[in-house]
Structures are given as structure tokens and as C-alpha cells.
Amino acid sequence: MNRLDKEPEEKELEDASEGQPEAEASRQCPVGIAFSRERKHWLLAGFLLLLSGILLAFAAPTVWETTEEGATQVHHVFLIGYVGITLLGVLLCLLQFRLPELFRRISGWVLTLLVPWAIFYAVDLINDTKVLYFSQRRLFANYLCYLLVFALVYALCRRASLTTLIAGGACLFFGIANYFVIEFRGKPILPWDIQAIGTAFEVSGGYRYEITRMMAFAVMLLLALTLLCARLETRRKTKSWKLQASERGAALVLFVVLAIQIFPCDLLTDMGISVWAWNQKVSSEQTGVLTGFFANIQFLMVNKPQNYSAEKVRELGEKIDSWEDPTPLGKPEKDPTVIVVMSESLTDLQNVGTLKLDEDCQPFLHSMQGKENVIWGTAYSSVYGGDTCNSEYEFLTGNTLGFLPTGSKPYQQYVDHEQTALPSIMKSQGYTCTALHPGYASAWHRDTAYPYLGFDTFLSADEYTFREREHGLISDESHYKQIIQEYERSEPGEKQFLFTISIQNHGGYEKEDYPNTVRILQVGDEVQNLNAESKYPQAEQYLSMLKETDRATEEFFRYFEQQEEPVVILLFGDHWPNLETNFARNLLDVDTEELEFEDLMREHEVPFLIWANYPLEGEYIGKTSLNYLSGLLLRAAGLQGTSYTNFLENIRQELPVISALGTMDKEFTLYRNGNGVLAETPPEEYAAWLNEYAVLQYNNAFGGGEKQRELFTR
Fold this sequence. Notes:
This protein is an alpha/beta fold. It has 28 helices and 21 strands. The protein has two domains: 3-299, no CATH class; 337-641, Alkaline Phosphatase, subunit A, CATH 3.40.720.
């Protein structure tokens, strides 16, 4: 028996080339292909077939497609491609290539440069972007972003196969995660979301995950490319440290050059990549997934507003102090207990468009609107489908996300030091400040942010006495009972400020065992057949949950109606839920592919009302935004505000809505916002107001040693 029968081909090649110059070894090396007889390679091929079958089974629901005639058929193109890439992977497991070492080395370099193209297309096809219609410049810009990742990994491991597996796997994982985030939240992953990954895992159990056919194909493609690189890359370990250093050095230089060009030099903008801050989902579809993520990194830094200086802040303070204080809206006999309920995903969809239900799912909310002792209206949130912490931040501080980089998460990014906010104002007037949330304390970094904002105590789910669940989360009824318990625990004469956030109506809305009690009769021009299966099960589940919230809210208010001690309650929603795309389109009577800015703003409308068990000057506030609600609450409680809250009440008369998405003036004209600046120029008078607001907010949040504390505290 000859030596070839005894040992694998790789061993023969290594021995043949050992001790010889590479060029000479390459010339002497036989070229050919043979099947491997090694057991591990056959086991690997079997594992690949098994994995392919499992992925196909999970992706089966998406393998079927509906034709224009309405018939359902198998997606033949996908199946052919999927079987082909699987067989290619199996062959690569079993085949051995006898190739010159020089050819192998060059192949490794070439594949490292080419694989990013394939991964780029895989990630974007998973996310259904417009990649097939990208211009050549946009395609190349996307390629450079993926090449940046591959260059860094290659500099670390210097192996084409490892680079493909690690870098390609990381990009693919990002793309799949991005797909699910869009499904559940309605917008892609943004740079500042990385800090909230813990919160994402904590609430991820409420959603349903479905592997798509493109995900399955992309995974098999990645494995096939990794095997191809492994079969073609060099088999002989070079003893030349110079060659190793030169390969790592070249990759590192490429990474550094690309990083400098993409970020500080803003190469992406020069190549036609621009972020649509007001609609990140559409922006991602137009720019590419990873490229859109990188483009948003430009907006992590908060720049000083135009005309900002300590002297400018002092001048504004003197100007505000010359104004009359806003008149109180409430007349309690003594300082009241102040309760805020920020209700998870609370909206009034029946007030947004044409929506007919078999019964009103929010009768109590609607009965309160218009009462003589209720201040109520529509507020605009800066977020959609998630990011509850941003709604909290705007309400508690009076700051607007409109002056911060798009997608900012202030709790994670900026609230890392003591900041003046509503709790500190209340504490200065003798109040004990408590926050309650029936979720994890660490969610959105609340456990670290709340002390900086002035809260004395924070009660999370672990400390709740009442823990009955609705839709898998602590119910609003239990949440209200906990608030009442904290109210009853107060000492005689103690003044309480209770800021609370519910969690019951958090997405997703796909629990099969949840009893839907609300049916949609009509949405937009579309009439539903009640005898057929609902077209909008998510929307009906959400509306059924709202019905339970409304019932519990009525009981909560009835309790405080009977209290002799003065109490004022603010109730508002944090954002819209993320429901079926067709439901939102029909509700707004628009095509979501061509959503106008005005329609995007409508998707950020949430109801609010302020009620008290003492005389309160009722008022309908047609439109406002969350950053103004704390000023209204102080006036309803008959409490004094600060120079900053007085400024906010004055600017609200001119610009009643200022959010991350846009600004609305008193004539209801909209101005698109993005990345801390208005994309559309308002009249000079409004521009001056906005600049003053931006200057004060920057001093409040980022002023450091120059902060004029007397403007923001009592």
C-alpha cells in the first residue's frame, strides 16, 4: 500500500512542500480534486444536510407564495437555489482540492474581498430593502461598510475561512435581528439601541419569531462560503513572520482607512447615502441595512446650538423672569398628591381615522374627554412602537428629542449625572418622589437614571405586592392597585409625587391563547366580514387589551373620586403600538410606501387627560407634545414651576408641538425635524423661539459647570 492510501491528501502536500521555497513547492504540487475518506468530513456533510432540513422546516410557511390570480404555490426559485447551495456545501465538505500553495494564498485574499458582496446582498434581501434597484455608487458604499468589518476580523485572525465565519456571521446576525426589530418596533436597529440590548432581551418573550426563507438561504450561503474558503486557503503554515505581519498590517491599514473615510470624513454622504431621520425604516430600505446603521453613527454627538454661550443663557433667564407666571389651572385647598400614569401603548385609534368596532373599547376615556374639570387633548410622542424611555425623558425633563440626535436614548447616553427635572422641582416643594414600573428595574437603565433625575424611591416588578398578569405581563389593574397601596402608605401630612409606567399593553400582539373581545367592523374603506377570520388579529388583540385597561382605569379614578385629600392625576400614552402594516395603511387611508409627513405625524398621536378631585379649570388642548405636559400638570396642581417650565408654557402658545419627528406652529403648519435641526425653515419668529429653547435645553442637560441652576430649580 502506498503512502497516499495511508494519509490524507493535505498531509502529502504539506510534506511535499516542507523545507522548499514556496514558489518551487507550488510548481511541484499536483493539481486535482478528490473525495475525502475522512470520517469527520462525512459527519460534517451529514450535519449540514440535517441543518438544511431543519431550517427549511422552520421556514416552510414562507416558502409558499400567492400568485396574482390568488392561487398558492411553492416558491420554485427559492427551492432550486436552496437545494443548490446545500448541495454545494455538502460537496465542499467531501471534496479535497490539490492546489499550489501560492494559488491558495491568493484565493484567500480574493475571497476575503469578494465575500462581503455576498453577505451584503443576503442581509439586505432578508430585510427586503431596495437593494436590487440601488445605483452603482450606493452598492459600492454598502460594500465598503461590509469590507470594513471583514478587514478588521482578517487583521485579527489572518484566515479567510475564520474571517468569513466570524465577520459574515456577525453581519448576518445583525441583519436577522434587524428584521425582527422592524417587525416588532417598526424601525431598524440604530447605534444607540446597542446600550438597550438588555431591555430588548427582557421584553423579547412577548413576540413570535418566524424564520423566513431568505434567512434560511443566507445561513446556508454563509456556511457554503466558509467551507469554500476553508478548502481553498493555504494548508502550509508559513514560518515567515514578515509575511504574517504584512497580511495583518495590510488588513489593518485597510480597516483604518475605511473607518476614517466612513466616519470622520463622512464618505457615505458623498456617495449618496443620507438618513431620513423622520422615517428610519424607509431610510434603511433606501440606503441598505448596515450602511444606514453606520450613517446614523454620525449623529451620536450632541452639538451646541447656534448662539449658545453662558452669557446667552443668563440673558434668557433675565428675559423669562420679567414675564408673568402662568396662572394656576387648579385650586386645591392644599398641595395635592400628584400621580402620573404613563400607560404603555395607550392610543385612541378610534379618533385617528375611520375605525368602527362592535363596541367602544375605551368608553371611560371618551367619557372623561370634555368634562368641565378635565384638561385633555392630543399629545405627540417622539417615538413609535417602542422606546418608552424617551417619552419618560421628555415628560420628566421638559426637554425635547427634537434637539437631540435622531434615535437618541437619553437614559443610556446622557443621564449619567444629576439632572434637574420634575422630581427635583417637586422635592423642592416638600414632596416625596416615587417611581413605579411593573417591569425589570434595569430596563432602559431606569435604576441608574431615576436617582439622577431626583426620585427618592423606585419600585420595580420585584417589589410589587399585586402581580396578576394580563397578556403575560403584570396587568394594569395590578399596577393601579400598587399605586393605591403606595398612596395609602403615606404618612399624615406627607406630600407624594408618584410617577408610574404601566406595561400590560406592551407588544407583541400575537398570543394565540389571548381571548379577543373586540372585533373590527370597518377600518378605512374596508369592511370586515364578522363570519370570516379577522384580517387584523394583532389589532383586535391590542384593542381587546385596551378594553381591559379602560375598565381598570375607570376603577382607579373612581377610587380617587372618593378621597377627601386633594389628588390630581395625569394619564397619557407613550407611543403607538406596532400593528399590521395594512391596518395602519387603511386606518390612515394612505399607502405606507408613500407615507406623507403629515401621516407619519398622525402615527405619533397619543391621548392625555388631567383630572383632579378638586376644582380644576377644564380645557381642551387641541395639540401638544409630551415635553409640555409637566408644565400643564404643575399648573393643574396649583404648584409653582421654574423659569424653564414658565418658558415652556409660553413657547407652547406659539409652537404647541415639538418632537423628534417634527414641529407644529399655532397655525398647525408642520416643519420636518431630524438630527436635532429642522429640515424645513420656519418663519423667523418661530426660529428664534426654537433657538432659545435649544439653548436652554443644552444648558439644562449638558451645561456642566456653566449650568444656570436657578433657571431649572426652585
